[in-house]
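Here is one chain, start to finish.
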Amino acid sequence: MDPDNIPEIDMDVHFMRMAYREAQTAAEMGEVPIGAVIVHQGEMVGKAHNQVEMLKDPTAHAEMIALTQASVAFDNWRLENAVLYVTKEPCPMCAGAIVQSRVQRVVWGLTDPDRGGAVSLFNILQNDALNHRCEIVTGIMEVECQQLLQAFFQERR
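Its structure:
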């Protein structure tokens, strides 16, 4: 995909759809339905969904797995100029990893005012005390992301 010829909002929706499909895969596997995609210069370099239950690993969040994949693709832990798309605001653990990996921009669907580590409960992604700050875009496919999470938890009850 040539990012120079596509408006940013269209790119955001395109890649958020990919993250949303990852979230759907997580739900089908019985995982909390969160998906993430990492893009560099219009090309996907990482994609993942939550795998906490399957791997029995509390760090196996979609964002963490996608960051690892992107680092392999970059052959570098610094993901400068990369964009992370995720269906829900990152938790504090993921937000810390995002800052440490130097992701330029983070786009998410649903904000999490109760547990969000990016800007809601903790302002990790734009904290002046840290060595890197990320640009943030919120609300891309918000309704769809919220409905997927709500349906997942209603089914669990």
